[in-house]
Amino acid sequence: MTAALKVVRPGLFDTVQDHGRIGYMALGMPTAGAMDRVGLSLANALCGNLLGTAGLEIGVMGPDLLVEADSVRVALVGPLAPALIEAPDGAAKPIDSDRTHLLKRGQVLRVGMVEGSSTAYLAVAGGFALSPFMGSLSTYARAGVGGFHGRKLGEGDALPLVCDRAPAGEDKKLGKPFDYGSGPIRIVWGPQDDYFTERGRETFVTAEYRVSKEADRMGIRFEGPAIEHAKGADIISDGIGPGAIQVPGAGLPIVLLADRQTVGGYPKIATVASADLPRLGRLLPGHAVRFAPVPVEEAEALRRDQAARLKRAIADFQPARPPGGIDLARLYEENLIDGVVY
Amino acid sequence: MSVRYLSCGDTAFTIEFGNEISPEINARVMALHAAIGRARTAGELAGLVETVPTMRSLMVTYDPLETSRHTLEPAIEGMIEHGLAADSAGRDVAIPCCYDDPEFAPDLAEVAERTGKPTEQVIANHLASAFKVYVLGFMPGLAYIAGLDPSLVLPRRAEPRVRVPRSSVAIAMDMTTIYPFDSPGGWHLIGRTPLRMFDQRREQPVFLAPGDRLTFQRIDRPTFDGISREVEAGSFDWATLIREA
Prior knowledge:
Largest interface: A-B, 50 and 47 residues
Order of helices and strands of chain A: EEHEEEEEEEEEEEHEEEEEEEHEEHEH
Distance between the termini of chain B: 28 Å
Number of strands of chain A: 23
Shape of chain B: globular
Largest sheet of chain B: 8 strands, mixed
Radius of gyration of chain A: 21 Å
Number of domains of chain B: 2
Mean pLDDT of chain B: 93
Number of strands of chain B: 14
Structural class of chain A: alpha+beta
Oligomer: heterodimer
Number of helices of chain B: 5
CATH architecture of the largest domain in chain B: Beta Barrel
Order of helices and strands of chain B: EEHEEHEHHEEEEEEEEHE
Radius of gyration of chain B: 20 Å
Number of helices of chain A: 5
Structural class of chain B: alpha+beta
Mean pLDDT of chain A: 93
CATH superfamily of the largest domain in chain B: Cyclophilin-like
Strand order of the largest sheet of chain B: 12-9-10-7-6-13-5-14
């Protein structure tokens, strides 16, 4: 039987995502990929995977997953309400996120709600046994490609696993929660900041903008004061990079994210610094943000700094032992994995 | 003709060759797109991720952990100043299209009426148009194909359709397009191809590429059905449609 995680109750919007489908924008193919690249990378690193391995992006509420494998090591990363591991007899124990957990056949992982963020990540050691489409496992639901049959997970889906048994190793946890930063979202002016009046640009970087209900993997529509155009809201379509902030005629900014279209005809006043994209990937309707301009060199430096901090966070992983020291359950599991019986 | 470099954050920038739609400007875009492709094949421009051509600009994406705007922009400026060879790599592609079935061509009669010619002339002028794929986008595999015979130029429909069937061939303004998916659409539907512009079962899921030169080839309904069966079965030989330049 194929090792799998079986969805016994689906979440709201759970899709398989990696670091994106790179190299096909010229054919009109959006990159898709994880909304919070840092969260997925940490989940993978905890599992001992390469950082860009495909994991499950959990949107708002996660699924209940039945383990149909001898064992599986999962990492949950993100501000989840306590998830539960439920034994076949129905006994459930709460578990923490930002660490790995070893699950056995017949147990159910109840992921539950993401709190204060729109996304969290579940990685499995060894990854999912799915076929890449155009070099990536990222789900792009609008075209029905990538991930698990090109769509979010539904009831009864069996997400195939590469490993039938969790690879040997010990459970790990984050030393401390990753610092995504606070304060204004950093932006770089352009590509079409000249399509806005001085006053329009001033409004954009001084006012507070609130995430509207129209927020999904494609982008976030913000509510707040209108940004004044200088010469209309139409351009000859050009390329749309990650984090591009387009401002249609009504003057309200839309930040374009993972599932954004490749080209578009609205002027883009600015672009979010890539180091702040993971923060945007976690925003929920009602969250308020401000935008602050930085030069492109500073945005690049911010990204390099974030990569260095991610590296340090991974170097600082701690063993996840229960209070008191020895984890008998884990020792027992590892014996099984190694096939050694004492 | 001066070139503008536009910031798209710290992972991309756009090289704008002009702010109008013209074959000359697009030719420069495609020449740079091709030149960057060749340079990367030769192992140059480390950290450059991909390029996205449009009618009048080329977006370059890059990995700020491997390179920087400060490194890439002068390198690309140098390529432009050195002179770009005209990109002759485009393919000549013939797209079979059935204009005969009213289900396939619900707007043919209206286009004929609004342009003041018999439907057969509308079809003949579409067949005689020398098309070129300028840009793909909006949805995967959707091509903006310019070069429509000037006598057929019409604005988009006042009332867009909620659902345009996949593989519909449509015209609007000076362009034609082929819908890769069932989708909303405001263009005039004048025919349908048995081909699929996007098919994830194919090794190359998107059939058309920027720079392709296109003509349509008229087929009758039995031929349409025959090709359609082969396309659906995955046995259709796509190479028969292409003549490499």
